[in-house]
Write a structure and sequence with these properties.
447 residues, alpha/beta, Rossmann fold, six-stranded parallel β-sheet, 44% helix
Length: 447
């Protein structure tokens, strides 16, 4: 089985989708599948380095990646009439990985209306507005050898993917990784047009994969398609390879946070609850470690959280660790009593949950999205996000009873070994790839 993955890069930080794609490709290779990744828009970034993506240095960290649909050119194609007249050498220079990585730092300056227009253009008008780049990518894939299946990291790539599938006469498998949150933030009319454009191309995709039953049901409703068309394959991670199956007991009662430092992940809610915990004399010496991706645009938000801590006299109790590596995350998980990510939107999965469980660390998460489904095994605390004191109470309970926390963490660790490893994920994904490769062509031609 040969699979080509189309993966949108972030340029300057690693996200949960990037980490999942990286782990999936490594595990599929271990199962005998030949995988290669093509970064789109911006360079692909993960918290690993190595051979994740292919032969051109597409390792998630190198600057040598060959980028297709480079973010600058693609934006100009969708928002101007003169970009097609740019000379070829200049267009190629604008696709340089180093330039795209630098440009990604200023993505927050893009107008929402332009982002919406670009989203619709990439899905609804991919062949018309970006046909030259689709042809260039198709030629690249032909030279590399046609894959059995084209894999899309998320449904926002369905325009590019289906046009490539038509040209190469290859089936498409599309993952769903929480892109609904991005689409729902687009201004109108682009939001509704984006959903409608994806829905119209649903029949052209041979296989749909969601990371949770919750998200499968949610996306089926949004795309108005039969729920049975979407299969659930839980995300998975590689078991720790350092011989430490369980984190040792934290010397100081410590709560951890491991996600992007962003309002959607609820960091401000955690800071507010932490200040309330610090006001209780019993926990005056407890610690909070805040780790995760922090973009340039996140800095003002983080400064506001630090200012709240300083005003409350609790700044000394928080250790900030921005843009951590894989090794940094593993060290952090060995230092905490419980992990808390109080997300404010219904998440499709939450990779940080199983990352904590793999170390025997329980989680504290809100009762929304996929969290009740994941935590049905009893690997932590679920709290009511509509009750202001609920998060504070859960934090205090985790700190007060470390033995209970460790027992919950062991349940989580067992759940990872039984259903959330990268091997489980790869085997489920490989089955769907084989089914897609054997399916009738949605383009009316036999493959």
């Amino acid at each position: 089985m040969k699979a080509m993955f189309l993966i949108p890069g972030t340029g300057d930080f690693h996200c949960g989708s990037c980490l999942r794609d990286h782990a999936l490709m490594r595990a599929l290779r271990a199962e005998g599948c030949h995988c290669r990744a093509v970064p789109l828009y911006l360079p692909w970034v993960t918290d690993h380095t190595g051979d994740a993506a292919g032969d051109d240095g597409d390792d998630g960290g190198a600057g040598r990646q060959r980028i297709f649909f480079g973010g600058i050119n693609t934006f100009l194609d969708a928002t101007t009439r003169w970009s097609a007249r740019l000379p070829g050498p200049l267009r190629r220079a604008l696709d340089a990985a180093a330039l795209l990585r630098w440009t990604a730092r200023f993505s927050h300056l893009t107008r929402p209306a332009d982002v919406g227009r670009l989203s619709v253009s990439m899905i609804e008008h991919a062949a018309q507005a970006h046909g030259h780049e689709i042809e260039r990518l198709a030629r690249f894939i032909e030279r590399d050898g046609r894959p059995d299946v084209l894999c899309l990291s998320n449904s926002m790539l369905i325009g590019i993917g289906t046009e490539l599938g038509r040209r190469l006469e290859r089936p498409i498998v599309c993952s769903m990784q929480g892109e609904d949150a991005f689409i729902d933030q687009l201004p109108q009319p682009w939001r509704d047009q984006t959903w409608a454009a994806i829905a119209r191309r649903v029949p052209q995709v041979a296989g749909w994969i969601a990371p949770s039953r919750f998200h499968a049901g949610q996306m089926a409703q949004r795309l108005r398609c039969d729920r049975s068309r979407i299969e659930t394959v839980y995300n998975g991670i590689a078991p720790p390879d350092d011989g430490i199956a369980e984190a040792p007991p934290a010397r100081t009662p410590t709560i951890g946070y491991l996600a992007r430092m962003h309002p959607s992940k609820g960091l401000d809610r955690l800071i507010d609850a932490w200040i309330a915990v610090q006001r209780r004399p019993r926990w005056a010496q407890a610690q909070l470690i805040v780790a995760g991706a922090m973009k340039r645009s996140d800095r003002p938000y983080v400064r506001r959280q630090r200012a709240k801590l300083a005003a409350a006299g609790a700044e000394h109790s928080v250790d900030w660790r921005a843009n951590v590596t894989h090794a940094d995350k593993q060290r952090m998980l060995q230092q905490i009593t419980a992990l808390c990510v109080p997300v404010t939107i219904p998440e499709a999965f939450g990779l940080y949950v199983i990352e904590a469980w793999s170390r025997g660390v329980p989680v504290i998460v809100p009762r929304i999205g996929a969290m009740p489904e994941l935590c049905a095994i009893g690997g932590g605390w679920l709290y009511d996000p509509d009750r202001p004191a609920a998060l504070t109470d859960c934090l205090a309970e985790a700190l007060a009873d470390p033995e209970q926390a460790r027992a919950l963490g062991r349940r989580g660790r067992q759940a990872v070994s039984e259903q959330f490893t990268d091997r489980h994920m790869a085997r489920g994904f490989a089955r769907i790839l084989r089914d897609a490769a054997a399916s009738p062509s949605p383009y009316g031609e036999a493959r």
